Amino acid sequence: MRLAAVISAFVMAANAPLLAQPRDTITIGMSQFPPDMHPFITATSVRNVVLLAMNRPMMGTRLDGSPFCVLCTELPTLENGAARLVHRADGTQGMVVTYTLKPDLVWGDGVKLTAHDLAFSLKVSFAFSAPQFIEAVAAPDDLHLELNLSSPVYDFARLGSVFVLPEHIEGPIFAAARDPLDYGTHSMFNRRPEEPGLWFGPYRVKHFEANDSIVMVPNEHWNGEKPYFREVTFRLIENTAALQANLLSGDVDTVMTSNMGMTLDQTLTLARTQQARFSFDFRPSVGSVEFLAVNHDNPLLADRRARRALSMAIDRETIVKRLFDGKFQATTLFLHPSEQGFDPTVKGWPYNPKAARALLAELGFRPGPDGILVDTTGRRFSIDLTSTSGNRVRELVEQVLQTQMKAVGVELAIKNEPARVMFGESLRKRSFRGLVEYDGGPGIDSPPIDMYSQRYIPTAENAWAGRNYSGYRSAAMDAALLETRSALDPAERRQKWRRVLEIYAEDMPTIPLFFASTAVITPNWLQSLNRADRVGYFTGWIEEWRPR
Length: 548
Fold this sequence. Notes:
Elements: H1 2-20, E1 25-30, H2 45-52, E2 59-62, E3 67-69, E4 83-87, E5 93-100, H3 115-128, E6 134-141, E7 144-149, H4 167-176, H5 180-186, H6 188-191, E8 203-209, E9 213-218, E10 231-236, H7 240-249, E11 254-255, H8 264-273, E12 278-284, E13 289-294, H9 304-312, H10 316-324, E14 329-330, H11 353-362, E15 366-367, E16 373-374, E17 382-386, H12 392-406, E18 411-414, H13 419-427, E19 435-440, H14 449-452, H15 475-486, H16 490-507, E20 510-515, E21 517-523, E22 526-527, E23 534-535, E24 546-547
Parallel strand pairs: 1-10, 1-11, 17-18, 17-19
Antiparallel strand pairs: 2-3, 2-23, 4-5, 5-7, 6-7, 8-9, 9-10, 12-21, 13-19, 13-20, 14-20, 15-16, 22-24
């Protein structure tokens, strides 16, 4: 017995340092996977979360919506002369904005990151999304980026804020490509994301397996605060119930926020039962709204009276109360009430099923034998509703929408798709036939030009660029959006914002549902996962993550 006790004590003593050693890897679960790794080809939040661990834009955003420098040394302003008004040859007024880069930025292969990389990145981004106001981009030297604008814009400091591409790697590929889509196919971001020279953030890709996982390791050439974890893994678990099970079992340490991770009802349940293991920080979503994209090319949805009727068929308050415990905020407009451009006197189309039925009757629809509306030709008011499959909350919302729409005679046929298909094909190429539910927005204090200007309708001719997936066309909205962004005077800008909201409410180009709340779930052994003073994806400060 005495010998056995001695052996046992020796084994425990030998293992004690190992058991006490802080963990140096972390696994993050996600219910969506990036459809590609290039910063500009598709517009998806999940890709941006991943990219921020390895790349950084020019600017960040504080909680009040104001920008701050990330790659630059000083915010461009009219006062410091880095932004200045100029007279153009045609007699109009333009603007020149100059950014000064930090001098110690280096790519993961040791090549210096310069203003030439940023100039190249902007030019590539223009191939996928037509530039707003930017007429010319120049890098007079390694540290200065200069933008020439066709008009003054109030958010000029943010115009140079894009993810950065390494010109020494991507430049020849872009120059040799037949078109933007051909470039996207041959880009190293999609062909070999493990290439160190693609990244300059705290981490770089070590291993990439499409629709499965992304493994990252520290970037030895990163000059910022050194990250702690020797390995970070993003793992796809599409079903949110399975994602929750993996979190509880410890197979993943935390999950992505919003609809990229678990649903709010799951998180609320965990917050009541798992406080000993995790902390839960709930934050309102301000710059992004859950809404229904509407295919304006569908004859059933082309008339704005039909879109108004669909909006009035939705009891948003009941959805928020019953499905989300009142944590979400119902809305009939795309702009959050806390934003500077919001005007409480502009109303959308709130729940009013009687008025909805009256509008649909105006359009020539009458109840058929089964209660679904039909017109004089016998055409049923039946439309598809698509969202991300496996997302339990969206599936519940869809079921409620289906019931509420049926009450006014509209049939919704639910046809969900994997996130990579919905974002990578159905939305981007506008192949959906009815409605698509997802969350999106222009960001805080930014006019939604690329969402509601007809210039940004994705087509094969513009390489499926832009986020006006609904195909909304309005010359009045186009003008109002541009005028809003060009208004330097805050009082004038508020009036312009009001006009944007009025046109939106009149036309209902999309159908808003609610502003969600996102939850950051932090395991009790980890700190600094959340930054309350910044807006954005939590990987934007991944280098600050530390074990307790």
